[in-house]
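ERR on first pass: missing label on line 2. Operator R.T. fixed the label and resubmitted. Corrected input:
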Amino acid sequence: MNYIKNPGKIEEESFRIIESEMGEHNFGERELKIVKRVIHTTADFEYKDLLYIREGAIDAAITLLKKGGITIYADTNMITAGISKKMLNALNCKVISYVRDEEIAAIAKEKGITRSMAGIEKAVSEGIEFFLFGNAPTALYKLKELIEEKKAAPKFVVAAPVGFVGAAQSKEDFEKLPVPMITVRGRKGGSTVTTAIVNALLYML
Amino acid sequence: MNYIKNPGKIEEESFRIIESEMGEHNFGERELKIVKRVIHTTADFEYKDLLYIREGAIDAAITLLKKGGITIYADTNMITAGISKKMLNALNCKVISYVRDEEIAAIAKEKGITRSMAGIEKAVSEGIEFFLFGNAPTALYKLKELIEEKKAAPKFVVAAPVGFVGAAQSKEDFEKLPVPMITVRGRKGGSTVTTAIVNALLYML
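pass 2 clean. output:
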């Protein structure tokens, strides 16, 4: 059958189509790479208007990744599965999630909180400074609490929980903190969006 | 802080909001469960008009899952990470992907095809009959070829590759086959959408 079988060519052509259809914008070169990769992952041009990339956030993420040897915390196993291991390994970095951890499930039950929240508490206690949220508003609120209590000081956050209860509000509240961040405003977001943002950052290196 | 921390309550309230906002539709009770879970995962109501659930497809999937002991093939590791292991294990079923397999990478290179295509060839050769596509049009075309050559006869397929090159066409072409299937028409789809469809089916059991 006659279809493009070269993944590199498919991606190149996809980005060309996205650029030609996305219309006017004010994104810089690096911002545009993130926006295009998110649209590539979702086929949803609305992300052009929903993505908020704080000034300095890309530099903050790249500095951490380039330094190497860091652990990134994600609130879903879909994110840990989706981020390019080849590139992370080359940087001696790794991405983990505690959300399916048995110990975390027990702690969450005991405290009457979500596993997502208990996972954040553990990650912060381990000194992790790079956080990815594609699912859980409760986890994002937990990180916000820990920042306000001066117990956490993340150096880079992707805040993209998706959904109808708490997601938009959690992101709006989190955005008020002076943290280097990339967020998706409103209800949209999710694990594939968060993964696309991180992979776009990795491809910049 | 004052926010809902009970995941069950969050989901219940989310589904209530989705139902109240989605407007008129002709979905039956089970179809509606799938549509609502996809909207829940994406916060994108357009899926209401993009999802195609073939008559008999839900029964086909449920029959396979209930029989138990089956292996499901997915074209991404994000899908294998996202599907509820608790429910799959209870049914003695599992979900796998060969897309990051070293052996598959070598075969793909040798044949000049994508790893996604080589993964499908291996899965078919192992007698797998339940396929999930959230990423690769080339993999979906490969399964179509194998069906037309009478080398494959899948009993249930979720066809939801996302993207700008080949995705929409691959799904439109695949839809012409008389296979029990759920597809997402047009460019949209992706791993989270495919995962939501399968989890909705699992929750019906």
